[in-house]
Design goal:
Blueprint (H helix, E strand, L loop, with lengths): L6 H8 L12 H11 L3 H15 L3 H16 L3 H18 L10 H19 L3 H14 L6 H12 L13 E2 L14 E5 L5 H16 L4 E3 L16 H15 L8 E2 L2 H6 L7 E5 L5 E6 L4 H8 L2
Parallel strand pairs: 2-3
Antiparallel strand pairs: 1-4, 2-5, 5-6
Helix pairs in contact: 2-3, 2-4, 3-4, 4-5, 4-6, 5-6, 6-7, 6-8, 7-8, 9-12
């Protein structure tokens, strides 16, 4: 019998606006985020202190601490951002001595955020080489966990542009067989990572289709992957989910000329596509000219793909 995925897991996998996702977060995370949104850092710190006194160091508390790092990073207060990122990391590493990182959602979210902030601080301080080295080591350390793609995304953001494009796994696919990237030298390639649940991906499909029509030498590849569930968040075996993904492809993406669709979790991890859509452009030399997690408009993409 099918089962609906647990709410916390569905939230992490889908980023769908369940009603409302924000309200499903641990209360301390909501308190800290609300205070940070108001730029009231003292209130955020006070909420953390009260939570620790009342409940101790829980995964929810650690996730809330990680938001302090993100809040200070957004404010460009690099010293405080680094302080909270380091504290988050210490708390997570202590916690995973007693449990697996992915045993529940807060610890991987917190650790991923701390790694992200620490790398961003290094980069903002002009220490790009150190940031790259740090992220490369973190990818190796957490290779077998749920945060691999997130860490790879941050590494790609600061180091992938101007470098040779990583390969794609094209062994499993929907529709026509995708070409290997190595065979496409001399042509520009648009990679459009999408997920069957992703509303932004569907909204972007029209722009991708227009770009492909107007630039006939452009190769468009749309990697996707299974997530363990199909329609309405119902758990599904891989084969059944692949059938559902094909239905989504036919409904939303068939109008993109020449689109091929490799199906592989490894592609998402290697390309750091923890955000969907993730968009990349490979130039005629096989070098990455654009790497962008998140939705892009036709106008934003056109300069990169124009013949």
């Amino acid at each position: 019998m099918r089962r609906t995925l647990p709410l916390f897991l569905l939230m992490i996998i889908t980023k769908v606006a369940l009603p409302p996702v924000y309200a499903q977060k641990p209360p301390i995370v909501i308190q800290v985020r609300d205070a940070l949104d108001a730029k009231d850092y003292a209130a955020a710190a006070k909420a953390l202190a009260a939570e620790r006194a009342a409940s101790g160091i829980t995964p929810a508390y650690i996730e809330a601490v990680s938001w302090m790092g993100r809040g200070y990073m957004a404010a460009k207060n690099y010293d405080r951002a680094d302080h909270y990122a380091a504290e988050t990391r210490k708390l997570v590493l202590d916690a995973v001595k007693r449990r697996k990182l992915d045993a529940e959602p807060s610890l991987p979210l917190a650790l991923g955020a701390s790694i992200e902030v620490q790398a961003q601080v290094l980069d903002a301080r002009g220490q790009k080489a150190e940031a790259v080295s740090f992220l490369q080591q973190e990818v190796k350390t957490w290779h077998a966990t749920s945060i691999r793609a997130r860490v790879q995304k941050n590494l790609n953001l600061i180091s992938l542009k101007g470098r040779p494009a990583p390969a794609l796994d094209v062994h499993e696919y929907l529709g026509d067989k995708p070409p290997a990237l190595a065979t496409l030298k001399g042509r520009k390639v648009l990679l459009f990572f999408w997920a069957h649940w992703c509303a932004d991906c569907k909204a972007m499909s029209g722009s991708v289709a227009r770009l492909a029509r107007e630039n006939p030498h452009l190769v468009v590849i749309g990697p996707t992957q299974p997530y363990g569930y199909a329609a309405e968040g119902m758990e599904a075996p891989r084969a059944e989910e692949i059938k559902y993904i094909e239905q989504v492809r036919q409904r939303y993406y068939k109008t993109i000329p020449g689109l091929t669709v490799p199906v592989s979790e490894e592609n998402f991890k290697l390309w750091g596509a923890s955000t969907t859509p993730t968009v990349a452009v490979i130039d005629a030399r096989g070098m990455v000219s654009l790497y962008h997690p998140g939705r892009m408009s036709y106008e934003e993409l056109l300069p990169y793909v124009r013949d």
